[in-house]
Specification:
Blueprint: E1 13-16, H1 17-36, E2 46-49, E3 55-58, H2 61-68, H3 76-88, H4 93-112, H5 117-138, E4 140-141, H6 147-162, H7 171-183, E5 194-200, E6 208-210, E7 212-216, E8 230-232, E9 235-239, H8 259-282, E10 287-290, H9 296-304, E11 308-310, H10 315-325, E12 329-330, E13 342-343, E14 346-352, E15 355-361, E16 369-375, H11 378-400, E17 403-406, H12 410-423, H13 429-441, H14 443-452, H15 456-467, E18 477-480, E19 485-488, E20 495-497, H16 498-516, E21 520-523
Parallel strand pairs: 5-16, 9-10, 9-12, 10-11
Antiparallel strand pairs: 1-21, 2-3, 4-17, 6-16, 7-15, 8-14, 9-13, 14-15, 17-20, 18-19
Length: 539
């Protein structure tokens, strides 16, 4: 009898074949269960407490999955697709996770009956290609040249993205703000030119959009109150250098023979600082921002000469000011010419709630804006920020790709009907699998009904009937979450960019195919490396 060949390290865990596939699919179901109830306007929020005790309340699929810290290797794929959806289009993170899990669930029974995974993968890929082509065919293009029409489209898309969030009641207010913010950017729509700052207190409607750069007043020394807080057409010096006396901190040793020599050293140091301050003053700059601290001597010096200064300005704020106002960040004061000084129309310091904010308006170089959010609890404001991020991304997408579809499960039902009809024209196993794909798409409207407490079976039957009508009058019918009926969601202005659905379908299908193509997991035990025993110091 031959001995078995041991190839892998002792303790290695291998499982393979169909049971492995089914167990991977089950793991993905569990992940989907975690975000299932957050879908749609009646979705719940999740409160997640991490190991440090920090609580996060969120409705955003990507955020929830990121915080859940999933360790199962196959289920991690779902976390990744939610993240990729978030990075690519910003919204639809919950739907993409649900779709992927549902595609896997539909394939489970076929796998258990012995159908080869590659056949399923091939059919799913074919179905995705058909579905994407269909979306492109039926999506409605909104004219860009009409400014008002474009604005209406963007506001509707932003409002749809906020429908399912905590701030759904204020969606009118915020969708206008988001659209103003996005339309104030350049052609490339750089996301980092929209700053979002949070100030606790006040009502949500006290949030405001500042056309320019705004950041919180930095830590400052005595003499600060005497500086002017309002300048018209200021010149802005952006520095990356300390303006304070350093000797007591530098651990330097100087040997001196007499008190006079000591005095000369102290004076030399003061002179160095005063020379720096003088050249800043002579450059004509009226606002001085530095990434590093500006000390009390400097603050007082600037106050006496009617200059404004702020030290320890956060890196991102300094960079945004630089991009918006022009100029360059200097590390010395030797060459403060007009070319390296930034400019804007107006600089002022304003009170927002309990905080003070430094605001630069009318920036000539790049268009930028800052949203200052108000609200009660810290978690609430953070969730508002995440919701606005989704809405901003959606508005950006809608500007770049001006074709839209109706949300609320309408597009999914239409694709489902289309794929079902198409599958009947194909012989063999593929017919069943494209039918399964069509069934999986129904998870979106079904979950919308479940979350709102409607009878999902009834609503879906009505939807199927409506979409199957000859003459195509029911294309945009979806779930009406307010009445528990079905409604024309296009007429009801529940719109989202077509690219969001296309990306969700392709990402979900890719993830499902990836998990179906894995038939073995090999877990290697961790290597325990003993720490080398070094010699002690005192030997």
């Amino acid at each position: 009898m031959s001995m078995p060949v041991i190839l892998l390290k002792e303790g290695t865990d291998t499982s393979q074949g169909i049971p492995q596939l089914v167990s991977n699919i089950n793991a993905c179901q569990v992940v989907a269960e975690a975000v299932r109830t957050t879908l749609g306007p009646r979705g719940y929020d999740k409160l997640i407490v991490d190991n440090r005790g920090v609580a996060t309340i969120s409705n955003d699929g990507a955020t929830i999955l990121k915080l859940l810290d999933v360790v199962h290797p196959a289920a991690k794929t779902l976390v990744d697709i939610a993240r990729s959806q978030d990075a690519e289009v910003g919204d639809g993170t919950t739907s993409v996770t649900l779709l992927a899990a549902e595609l896997l669930k539909q394939s489970k029974s076929y796998l258990e009956e012995g159908l080869h995974p590659q056949v399923i993968i091939r059919s799913y890929r074919a179905a995705t290609a058909l579905a994407v082509a269909k979306i492109k065919e039926i999506a409605v293009t909104v004219k860009k040249d009409d400014r008002l029409e474009q604005r209406r489209l963007l506001e509707k898309c932003a409002a749809t993205a906020m429908n399912s969030k905590l701030i759904a009641n204020q969606k009118e207010f915020f969708s206008k703000m988001v659209v103003d913010a996005v339309l104030s950017l350049d052609e490339l729509l750089p996301l980092k030119m929209i700053g979002i700052k949070k100030v606790q207190g006040g009502a949500l409607e006290d949030s405001q959009l500042v056309d320019g750069v705004a950041f919180k007043k930095t830590f400052s020394y005595a003499g600060f109150e005497m500086q002017p807080k309002h300048y018209e057409k200021p010149k802005i010096a952006l520095l990356n250098m300390e303006l304070e006396l350093k000797a007591e901190r530098e651990n330097a040793e100087v040997r001196v023979q007499s008190v006079g020599e000591y005095q000369a050293i102290v004076e030399a140091e003061w002179n160095i600082l005063y020379e720096k301050l003088e050249s800043i003053h002579n450059s004509g700059a009226t606002v001085v921002l530095s990434k590093l601290p500006i000390g009390d001597v400097a603050t007082q010096y600037f106050a006496d000469r009617d200059l404004f200064c702020a030290g320890r300005v956060p890196d991102e704020d300094l960079k945004r000011t630089l991009m918006a106002c022009g100029g360059a960040i200097q590390t010395t004061v030797g060459a403060l010419t007009d070319q390296v000084l930034g400019q804007c129309e107006l600089f002022e310091e304003v009170q927002v709630g309990a905080e003070r904010y430094n605001v630069f308006r009318g920036c000539p170089k790049a268009k930028t804006c800052t949203i200052i959010l108000r609200g009660g609890a810290q978690q609430f404001m953070e969730e508002t920020e995440r919701s606005l991020h989704d809405a901003i991304m959606i508005a950006r997408r809608a500007i770049k790709n001006d074709s839209i579809v109706a949300g609320g499960g309408a597009i999914e039902m239409e694709l489902s009907k289309y794929l079902r009809d198409h599958s009947r024209t194909i012989p063999g196993k593929q017919q069943l699998l494209i039918g399964a794909y069509a069934k999986a798409l129904e998870i979106i409207p079904r979950q919308l009904c479940d979350n709102a407490g409607f009878d999902a079976t009834n609503v879906l039957n009505e939807l199927r009937a409506k979409h199957a009508q000859v003459g195509g009058g029911g294309t945009w019918y979806g779930v009406d979450v307010n009445c528990g009926e079905i409604a024309d969601n296009f007429a009801a202005c529940v719109w989202e960019p077509a690219i969001v659905r296309i990306n969700a379908l392709t990402a979900a299908s890719e993830a499902a195919c990836l998990i179906l193509s894995v038939d073995e997991t090999i877990k290697s035990p961790r290597n325990v490396v003993e720490a080398p025993r070094g010699r002690g110091r005192g030997r």
